[in-house]
Every structure is written in C-alpha cells, then in structure tokens.
Amino acid sequence: MKQVIAIDIEKCVGCHSCQIACALAHSGANTLFEAVQQEPAAQPRIAVLLVGNTPVAVQCRHCDDPPCVEKCPTDAMQKRDSDGVVTVDPELCIACKVCTKVCPLGEFGVISRSRDEEAKTIIKCDMCPERTSQGLLPACVEACPTGALVLMDPEEAAAQGRLVTAEELAAALHELQQAPQPALSLSRSSDGKQ
C-alpha cells in the first residue's frame, strides 16, 4: 500500500532530528556515537533547508511518474509496484547524477552522491524499508518532535491539503527564496516593548 511522508512546513523548526535519525537508520550502527565515527560518515537521505527564514525538511516525493526513473541511463532508478517507492539499485548506479538534474527537487539535495567513493552510487529517501517492514515508521517521521513529518495515505494527505508533489514543493521553495525576509531585531522598539 502506498504511503507518503506529508510535510507541514509551518511545524518544521529546523532541529535536524529527521536528518540525524535518517543517517543513523541507514548507517548500520546501533548508536549515534558509532554512526558519527564511521568512515565514510553516515549520510541522511533527507535535507533540512533554511529557505529565507523558513526551515523546511525535504526528501524524495516518490513521484507518480518519476522523471529520475524515466531518464536513468542504467535503469538503476526504479519505482516499486507494490508501494510506489522510488529506489536506486547501487549495483547499476554509476552516480552520473542525471536523476539529480531531472528531479524537480534535485537542486535541493534530495538526491546526493554517496560519500563512499568505492560505492559510486547516489542515495535518496527509500522510506526505510527495514523499519516499515517491521511496522515501524520511517526514521525521520518517528524522530520529528513537532509532527512536521507524518506518514499517511495519499488520499488522507490530499484531504488535509498535505499531499505535495515534487513540482509543488520545488515551486514553494523557489517562492520562499524570492520572498522578502523580515529583519530580525533583538532591540526594544520605540514604545519600550520587545
């Protein structure tokens, strides 16, 4: 059954808990201490961006018609029929980054090259199959302290206005980048209030 990680931008506080949990979940380590000592370092499959003054957690949207799958020259990018998750086969991937160029969110770091130079592959959100197969939430969703990331059925997410496609999210991020940002002031105003 297809599920999506719904994003509520207004709830994201930019704490990076999702990134830490994701990196740990994909590291093979049992503790954060072990994960940060690995070579190469553990790497998250989600990005937390500061767009203007707004923190936004961004990961692969597992598109209905993913351009990364269509354009991958080695067929390393695949969409699973069972749940709609877009995956990468590290045995076929040559890290050419075509997927990054055709993905609407590619410029925002949702697809990145593995730090493992020997691997020669890209990495991206895989919806934590090791966790979800055991009935657990994806690591980023479980770690989010504000509920900005929630795993839900696409229909439920759409009904709540939380189903965001890669194109819609990219457009919103570009809009946030262009918006004038209020100046941060820590001084008292003329009426003595802060």
TL;DR?
The protein has helices at 17-25, 32-36, 67-71, 98-102, 129-132, 139-143, 154-159, 166-178; strands spanning 4-7, 47-51, 54-58, 77-79, 86-88, 111-113, 122-124, 149-152. By secondary structure, the protein is an alpha+beta fold.
CATH class: Alpha Beta
DSSP summary: helix tally: 8
| Uncertain regions spanning at least 5 consecutive residues | 184-194
Largest sheet report:
2 strands, antiparallel
CATH topology: Alpha-Beta Plaits
Q: List SSEs in N-to-C order.
A: EHHEEHEEHEEHHEHH
CATH architecture: 2-Layer Sandwich
CA radius of gyration is 18 Å
What's the number of domains?
Answer: 1
Q: Outline, from the CA principal axes?
A: globular
User: How much helix, percentage-wise, in residues?
Assistant: 25-40%
- State the end-to-end distance: 50 Å
Structural class: alpha+beta
**Residue fraction in strands:** 15-25%
Across the major sheet, the strand order is 1-8
Average pLDDT figure: 86
Q: Can you count the beta strands?
A: 8
What does this structure look like?
- This protein has 194 residues and is of the alpha+beta class.
- It has one domain (4-178): Alpha-Beta Plaits (2-Layer Sandwich), CATH 3.30.70.
- 27% of the residues lie in helices and 15% in strands.
- It has helices at residues 17-25, 32-36, 67-71, 98-102, 129-132, 139-143, 154-159, 166-178; strands at residues 4-7, 47-51, 54-58, 77-79, 86-88, 111-113, 122-124, 149-152.
- The strands form four sheets. A two-stranded antiparallel sheet has the order 1-8. It has a two-stranded antiparallel sheet with strand order 2-3. Strands 4-5 form a two-stranded antiparallel ribbon.
- Strand 4 (77-79) and strand 5 form a beta hairpin.
- The protein is globular and about 40 Å long.
- The chain starts with a strand and ends in a 16-residue tail after the last helix.
